[in-house]
């Protein structure tokens, strides 16, 4: 099955087209804003590089968070719109799940810097989650890592991984700065065909007049 993978949750716009285990084409453009102007043309360009028409897609995988409130909504809107036009499922994939899948053996802790002295993190063993994704303060997150990574026998992966390294000095560190869209596509291929929903672990930073959160 040919799958389009999309990630706009962090500081990049990333797209890949995969056919089973083969990556037909992929591209990643770093950006902190402007995902909505670039995602459609980037997907078109990557599909052209892969020699694949959108009509050949069997699924569309998209990261659903945690990450940038605006970025994840851009990716979801694009994936849902394209999926509806093509009559194929759009499948949501967690950013932390996708990061951890790049190192699925043993204990892996995926982490994203959530700013404001917080980290989004989730632990996996051999690719199986040990609990739900969570937002934690740095002190709490480091205590959690120290408790599960006894002896440092773990892999820390993701843009927030360096923030946790002091809690597991012997752990392997992988400085992935975002989810690999090819991994997103492969994970989407194996998931049940359920509509994607955004994964918010805290309220967005932006607020409406009067102090109300800009919620979903």
Written description of the protein model:
The protein has helices spanning 35-50, 69-86, 95-100, 138-148, 181-190, and strands at residues 2-7, 12-19, 22-30, 59-63, 90-93, 107-115, 118-125, 128-129, 134-137, 155-157, 172-174. It has 216 residues and is of the alpha/beta class. The strands form 2 sheets. Strands 6, 7, 8, 9, 10 and 11 form a 6-stranded mixed beta sheet that branches. Strands 3-2-1-4-5 form a 5-stranded mixed beta sheet, with helices on both faces. The radius of gyration is 17 Å and the shape is globular.
Question: How would you summarize the topology of this molecule?
Answer:
Elements: E1 2-7, E2 12-19, E3 22-30, H1 35-50, E4 59-63, H2 69-86, E5 90-93, H3 95-100, E6 107-115, E7 118-125, E8 128-129, E9 134-137, H4 138-148, E10 155-157, E11 172-174, H5 181-190
Parallel strand pairs: 1-4, 4-5, 6-10, 10-11
Antiparallel strand pairs: 1-2, 2-3, 6-7, 7-8, 7-9
Helix pairs in contact: 1-2
Q: Span from first to last CA?
A: 32 Å
> Regions with pLDDT < 50 over 5+ consecutive residues?
211-216
Indicate the radius of gyration in whole angstroms: 17 Å
Number of strands: 11
* Spatial shape: globular
Offer a concise description of the structure.
Helices cover 28% and strands 28% of the residues. It is of the alpha/beta class. It is globular, with a radius of gyration of 17 Å.
């Amino acid at each position: 099955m040919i799958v389009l993978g999309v990630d706009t949750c962090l500081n990049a716009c990333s797209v890949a087209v995969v056919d089973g285990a083969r990556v037909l084409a992929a591209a990643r453009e770093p950006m902190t804003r402007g995902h909505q102007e670039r995602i459609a043309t980037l997907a078109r360009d990557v599909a052209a590089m892969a020699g694949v028409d959108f009509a050949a897609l069997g699924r569309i995988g998209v990261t659903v968070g945690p990450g940038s409130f605006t970025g994840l909504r851009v990716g979801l809107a694009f994936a849902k719109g394209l999926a509806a036009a093509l009559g194929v499922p759009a499948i949501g994939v967690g950013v932390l799940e996708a990061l951890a899948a790049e190192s699925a053996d043993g204990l892996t802790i995926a982490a994203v810097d959530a700013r404001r002295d917080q980290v989004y993190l989730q632990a996996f063993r051999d690719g199986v989650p040990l609990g739900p994704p969570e937002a934690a303060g740095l002190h709490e997150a480091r205590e959690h890592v120290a408790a599960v990574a006894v002896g440092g026998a773990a892999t820390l992966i993701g843009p927030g991984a360096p923030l946790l390294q002091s809690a597991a000095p012997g752990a392997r560190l992988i400085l992935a700065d975002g989810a690999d869209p090819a991994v997103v596509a492969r994970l989407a291929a194996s998931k049940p065909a359920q509509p994607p929903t955004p994964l918010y672990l805290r309220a967005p930073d932006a607020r409406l007049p009067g102090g109300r959160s800009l919620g979903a």
